[in-house]
C-alpha cells in the first residue's frame, strides 16, 4: 500500500518511530514520582502516557491534574526534565533498520528533504539524534517547545513545508498533499490530517493500539519497509 504518489517531504516522529526511548522515559517518570514521595507506576502504564510532550506525561503520571497544585506540578516537570536530560541515553536505542532505511531513501531520492517533528523538548531531541548519527539525514528537528503549540496542531508541519520550499526556491513548491508524516501514534496521524498531509503509521512503536482508530493512509511493521512503502 502506498501513502502518496512521489512524496516530496518526509517528516518523522522521534519516540516510537526512530528510537525506542520507553525505558528511559519510564525510569525518569518513576524517579520523579519517588522524588515527590509517590509510588512507582508500571512501565506499561507510563508508556501509554507518552506522545503529548513532557508536561502532559507528568500530568498523567500524577493523576487528576485538578488535584495537583500548579507549583507542585511545575516542580515535578522541572525535576523530570533535569533527570531525563542526564539519563536520556541510558537505555534508548535506534530501532533496527532505521539508519539503513534513511540511508536508502537518501541515496535513491537525494532531493527529498527529511525532518523530525516530535513533542519531546527540542534540546534532548536534537542531542539524541546527534548521538546516534541520525541528524545527518534531517534538515530540521523541531520539538514540543519549538512553537506555541504541539502536535496534533498542524503548525509544525506547515513550518517545515515552508522551510523545505525555501531550500529549493526555484522548484515547484511542495504541497501538504506531497508531505508524509511518519509516526507511531494517533497524535502523528491527526497532525498530518490537520495539515492536509499524508501519514504512515509505525506499528512497531510505543502506541500501536492508537493507530488503527486514527486510520493512517498506510502502516508498516518495521522501518525497513519505509522506502518501498513511501516510494512504491
TrEMBL record:
E.C. number(s) listed in UniProt: 3.1.3.18
Entry-linked Pfam families: HAD_2 (PF13419)
Catalyses which reaction(s): 2-phosphoglycolate + H2O = glycolate + phosphate
InterPro entries on file: HAD-like_hydrolase_sf, HAD-like_sf, HAD_2, HAD_sf, PGP-like_dom2
Molecular function terms from GO: phosphoglycolate phosphatase activity
Biological processes, Gene Ontology terms: DNA repair
GO cellular component assignments: cytosol
Superkingdom classification of source: Bacteria
Pathway it works in: Organic acid metabolism; glycolate biosynthesis; glycolate from 2-phosphoglycolate: step 1/1
Family, similarity comment: Belongs to the HAD-like hydrolase superfamily. CbbY/CbbZ/Gph/YieH family.
Protein name per the record: phosphoglycolate phosphatase
